[in-house]
Amino acid sequence: MLSRRTLEAATAILTGAFGVAVMVSSLNNGIDWSESGVESGTFPFITGTIVAAASLYNLVRGWMRGTGIVATRAGLQRTAALLLPAVLYVALIPLIGMYVGSAAYLFGTLRFQSKLSVVRSGLIAIVASVALYLVFERAFQVSLPHGWLGVVLDL
Amino acid sequence: MENFEALMHGFSIAISVNHVALMIGGVLLGILVGVLPGLGAPNGVSLLLPLTFGMTPVAAIILLSSIYWGALFGGSVTSILFNIPGEPSSVATTFDGYPMARDGRATEALATAFGSAAFGALVGVVLITCLASWIAGVALQFGPAEYFAVYFLAFSSFIGVGGAPPMKTVVSLAIGFAIAAIGMDTVSGSVRLTMGVDELVKGINFVVAVMGLFGIGELLIAVEDELHAKPVSSKIEWRILFRTLAGLPKHWVALLRSAAIGCWMGITPGGPTAASFMSYGIAKRVSPRRANFGKGEPEGIVSPETADHAAGTSALLPMLSLGIPGSATAAVMMGGLMIWGLNPGPALFIEQKDFVWGLIASMYLGNIVAVILVLLTVPIFAALMRLPFFILAPLIFIVCVVGAYSVSNSYLDVVLMMGFGVLGYLFKKLDYPLAPLVLAIVIGDKAEDAFRQSMLMSQGSLKIFVANGLVTTLVCAGFALLLVPPLFRMIGGLRGRSR
Q1: Rg, C-alpha atoms of chain B
Q2: A chain contacts of residue B401, beta-carbon cutoff 8 Å
C-alpha cells in the first residue's frame, strides 16, 4: 500500500533534486552578463531554481494535505510485474540484442505471468521478433542492436 | 478570396492517388493507436517520423496529420464502448458516453461523438483557412521580444487554465525547460547540463521523452488500475446512426460553444485534453439539461468531443504560422517539419505555399476519410479490444523500446525512455500535467533564444518587453492568465468562509 503523502513527498524530492543538480551544473557555464549577452548557464540556472522552489512547495503541501491511498498493494504488484521484467529486458539488450531480448521477454511474460501454454507463448514471441526483423532490418534498413551475442555469432 | 484560391490550389496538390492512399493508411494507423490504451497520437506520429524522411514534405505531413485525425477519432471509440479512454483527450467523453453505451445506446453515443467531432474539426479547419495567412502576416512583424511574449502567453495559459495544480504545472514546465537546455547551447556553442555524460551533447530527443511519458507511463497506470473492459454490443445499427447524425443540429448551442472553446485552447496551446475537460465543465454548469450529465446525456458527449477536435485541428494553426505547437502531437509534428528542412513560422507561408495549402486542403479530406473509416472499423477494433491486455502490454512495451532506439540508434535513449516512463507514471498518478513538459522540451530553447536575443538588443533591460503596444499586450495577457484564476479562487474561498 502506498499513501498519497509518501508518493507526493518522494516525487517532490526527486524533482527537487533534479532542480538542484541543474542549478549546480549550470554554474559551470556562468550565470552572469558578458559581452555576448546573458551567459549560457543563466537560463538553466533560473529553471533549476524554479524547479527546486516549486518542488519544496509541493513537498510541504503534499505532506500536509496528502491523504488517502494512491496505490493498493495489488495494484503495485501488477505494476511491478510489468515494470521489473521490462527493466531486465532493457538491461539485457547490450548482451543479447533486441531481437533475442524481445522474444525472451515476450515468452517469459506470457508463459510465466499470463500462464499461456509453451507453444502459444513461443509462437507469439517468435512471430513478434521476426516481424520486428522484417520491418526494421529489411524494410526500413534500421539496424537494431544485435548485442554481444550478435558479435559472438558474427551477425 | 485570396485564401480561397490558395485553398483550391491546395486541393489540387492534396488530391492524388498517392496522397489519398497515405491518408487512408495514416487514418487507419491513427485509429489503431487511438484505440489502444497506452499508445496515442504522439506515439503514432513519433513512430512513423523516421519513415517520412525519404518522402516529400507534403506527403510526409499528410501521413502524419492523418494519423492525428485517426487517433482523435479512435480515442473516442474505446471511451464509449469500454470506458477506457484511448487518448487523454477523450477522458471526458467517457463521463456520458459509457453510460449511454451501457444502456444499449452505443450506436447513438458513437454517432453523436463522431458527428460532433467532425463538426469541431471542420470549424478548426475553416478557422485555419481564414486566419492562417493573416496571423502569419502579423507574426512577420514579430521581433525576439514579441516572440518571447507569445511563448510566455502560451506557457502561462497552461498554468492558469490547465486545470492541474499550478505549482505542479510550474514544476512540469520548468523541468521541460531544463531538459531542452541539455546539450549544445545554440547561442554560445558551449555544452550544458550533460552531467559528465558525453552522449548527452546532442541533447535529449523529444520523441524519446514522449514515448516514455505517454507510452510507458500510461501503460503502467493501466496495468495498475487493472482495466476491466466490459465490452458492450459494438454492432453498428445504420438507421439509428443516420437518425442521430440528422438530429445533431438540435445541440447547436453546445456545438458552437464547444467549438469556440476548442479553437481558443488549440491556438493558445492549452491542447485538446484541457479543451475537452473545460468544455464539459462549462456545459455541466450552463446547460439546461445539466441534471442528466454523467447519466448518459448526449450533450455530455457533444461538448468534449467538439472541443477536443476543434482544439486538435486548430493546434496546427500556431504551429504553421508562428512555429509554436498547440498540442503534444503538433509539437512532435513540428519536430518533423524541422527535420524535413522546413522552418515552421511565418516565412513558411511565403516560401512553402504548396506545402501549407496542401496540408490545409488535406485536413478537410483527412477528416472526411477519418469519419468514414472510423465508422467502418468500429467492429474490428471492438474485436481487438477482446485481445487480453496481458498480451497487449508487453507488445506495446517492445514497440516503445524499439521506437526509442531507432530515433538515433542509441541505447542511452532506451534507458532515458524508461526513466521518462517512470516519471510519466509518477506525474500521472499525482496530477502533474504532462503536456507543459512536452511543450517546454520542444520549444524551451526557442523561448530561451528569444529571451536572450531580446536581452542583447536591450543591453539587459527588461523594458524591451513593454516597448510597444503589441508586446505589452501579450505580456499583460500572459500575466493575466497566470494571476487571474488564483485570484478568483482566493475571492471564492473568502466568500465561502464569510458565509
Answers
A1: 22
A2: 89-90, 93, 98, 102
